[in-house]
Specification:
By secondary structure, this protein is of the alpha+beta class. About 30% of the residues lie in helices and about 35% in strands. α10 (about 275-285) packs parallel to α11 (about 300-310) and α15 (about 360-380) runs antiparallel to α16 (about 385-400). The chain is globular and about 90 Å long.
């Protein structure tokens, strides 16, 4: 009986003591949390640049605007007001860091390692006072990436893909032992829209520009990006090694983990891939000012230029696409040799022809290499063809028996060396014997007459092209607004047969006659598109021709919408001092009206970001014709 009583007393004392210790520990932890929250409040840590960068806060565009986070995913916040209240979010984050460690990988310390590291440093929180969850997922991921260096990667513009027509940027994280391996095993971090597969091109353009797609970060092996951009889409890649320390790279990786699967709004022109990467750089280099340079648009080439101007790039390198390599090899051949290479790709028996046998061993190697590379290029664009694969193998065997030939692809001008992408200008001119003055503005990007340095020749992408015109008789009028104007001229030759195309939509002033043959200048809303071909003559001339269709509404024509068919053709001459364009364009409407316009324009480059443009055009209609001439100054910024 005495023994049982003693055991009961000892057990009761143990339970009471343990409870008191546990209660004291809880009180001590709560006291610590309260003290840390008070210190953070007193020191106004929520107003510090680092905290606001970690949370992606920005000041809204509204006058007197408040802070708002770009992150739209509620999982990113511990406070219900976290998206708009930095102070509350910091307060709740401190509380969350002390949650029980039993949640393991789901614990806030594991989910938000960059936030945890910064708060621990700022508030001097010791490891002993914090829970110790097992963050195995995060640790394994960091060891797998094993990155110590960072590069900014710029795949060049790909005009046949709306989401990449301005180019694209992403980060490449390089491992510690890169010299012993290959950058193909590095990791790539990109930001992009989560597209709806059911959306058509119009829906894609609308939602991409005005919002509607969520954007997320994605991490993948760099070699997959090379395959996607360099090989499948035939885009050249520029690699810019960043002057970022190993500790900064580590912090960027920690923040990458925090943003895994987190959703942002995605906007094609500003809150895009390029803009999100600038936020990452500012996180570790708060002294630089990058994102505030891009309030209207964040075109990838412009953001690369901004990073370089901040002194953050140590070296730059060029990785040509499969098409660029092939075109460079073709250019090294004579016309006869190039024709032989093209025919050899289709008929392996030409290896026994006299025209091939008469070549020197070095020339044979060049011809066979072009034929082999061309077949590889074709194979990338289709389901594997057994006959092509067989010819490729035979050509490869032949190539291995010939002298190896070194071929260096000429490195083009880097994209950031071209003109800036927004334009403002002024014009004076005369039309139908009436003089005018005009204000010109373009939101972005590049037209056929602009200085081609750093841009793909034959590519025209203009958005928000605006003209306000003043005449003495009519005052100021909205003369033109091109919502979007795209033209892709893919050169056709014996190796390449990609079609050229264009699409344009907007508002413009036109002269139109009604059913009573009374004509006047009126506004017209239109959509115009066409397809055709482009060919190059020599080194400096590009010819093009399109079959077009136009849909138009103006107050003079009936019915409400009128359709027209037509053709357009022209020539681009790339001269040492500027680009010359001659063009002929016609539209024949279903109401039996037509427009025929012949024009000639000369752009004179005044350095990189300034130009003078002179133009003359003649328009003919059924009972009307008019001559227009103008001269304009254009500045790019």
């Amino acid at each position: 009986m005495l023994i049982k009583l003693s055991v009961h007393i000892i057990f009761t004392v143990f339970i009471y003591t343990f409870s008191m210790l546990l209660s004291a520990e809880t009180i001590s932890r709560e006291s610590l949390i309260t003290a840390l929250q008070k210190e953070a409040l007193d020191r106004r840590l929520s107003e510090q640049r680092k905290w606001q960068d970690l949370m992606h806060y920005h000041t809204t565009a509204i006058v007197g605007g408040e802070l708002l986070s770009y992150v739209d995913d509620p999982r990113y916040y511990f406070s219900s007001e976290g998206k708009t209240n930095p102070e509350n979010e910091l307060h709740e984050t401190i509380q969350a860091l002390f949650e029980d460690a039993s949640s393991g990988n789901a614990h806030p310390i594991c989910r938000f390692p960059a936030r945890h590291a910064w708060l621990a440093k700022e508030l001097n929180i010791s490891n002993e006072s914090l829970p110790k969850p097992l963050c195995s997922d995060y640790i394994d991921w960091k060891e797998q990436v094993n990155a110590t260096r960072l590069s900014l990667i710029f795949p060049s513009a790909y005009i046949n893909s709306p989401s990449s027509m301005f180019g694209h940027t992403f980060f490449r994280f390089d491992p510690r032992d890169l010299e012993k391996r290959t950058d193909w095993l590095s990791w790539a971090l990109s930001f992009g829209a989560q597209l709806d597969a059911s959306d058509n091109s119009i829906a894609f353009a609308y939602r991409g520009i005005f919002g509607g797609y969520p954007g997320i970060f994605n991490m993948s092996h760099y070699f997959k990006k090379i395959k996607e951009y360099n090989n499948l889409e035939n885009r050249d890649i520029w690699e810019y090694a960043l002057d970022i320390s190993e500790s900064d790279v580590d912090e960027m990786l920690s923040h990458t983990w925090e943003l895994k699967e987190m959703e942002f709004d995605y906007y094609f022109l500003d809150e895009n891939c390029a803009f999100r990467l600038l936020e990452f750089i500012e996180l570790v280099r708060p002294e630089v000012k990058l994102t505030n340079q891009f309030n209207m648009t964040a075109i990838p080439a412009d953001t690369v230029r901004a990073v370089i101007e901040e002194g953050l790039v140590s070296t730059a390198s060029f990785k040509p696409s499969a098409t660029t390599k092939l075109k460079s090899r073709i250019k090294a051949l004579s016309e006869t040799e190039a024709t032989l290479a093209r025919e050899l790709a289709d008929d392996i028996l030409l290896l026994q022809s006299q025209s091939y046998l008469d070549l020197s061993p070095e020339k044979k190697a060049q011809v066979v290499q072009v034929a082999y590379s061309f077949l590889r290029y074709r194979q990338l664009k289709m389901v594997r063809d057994k006959q092509i694969a067989k010819r490729s193998h035979q050509l490869l065997i032949t190539l291995n028996q010939l002298p190896s030939t070194e071929h260096q692809v000429a490195i083009p001008a880097r994209p950031e060396t071209g003109h800036k992408t927004s334009m403002v200008g002024s014009s004076v001119g005369i039309k139908a014997d009436k003089s005018y003055a005009q204000f010109d503005f373009r939101v972005t990007y590049h037209d056929l007459l602009d200085n081609p340095l750093g841009y793909p020749k034959g590519a025209h992408i203009a958005m928000g092209n605006t003209q306000l015109r003043y005449t003495e008789s009519e005052g100021v009028k909205f003369h033109r607004f091109d919502f979007i104007d795209i033209m892709s001229m893919s050169e056709m030759d014996q190796f390449f047969d990609s079609p050229s195309w264009h699409v344009k939509t907007g508002y413009e002033h036109v002269f139109a006659q009604n059913e009573n043959n009374l004509g006047k200048n009126t506004g017209a809303y239109y959509v115009k598109a066409g397809g055709g071909a482009s060919i190059r003559l020599g080194e400096s001339t590009l010819l093009y021709a399109f079959a077009d269709a136009r849909l138009e509404h103006n107050s003079q024509y009936k019915p409400f919408l009128n359709t027209a068919l037509g053709v357009s053709a022209g020539a681009l001459n790339y001269l040492p001092f500027g680009t010359l364009k001659t063009a002929l364009e016609t539209d024949y409407f279903t109401n039996d009206e037509y427009r025929l316009v012949a024009s000639i324009e000369q752009n004179i480059h005044l350095g990189i970001n300034n130009a003078l443009r002179i133009g003359v055009s003649q328009e003919w209609q059924r009972d009307y014709d008019q001559l227009e001439a103008n001269i304009s100054y254009r500045h790019f910024y």
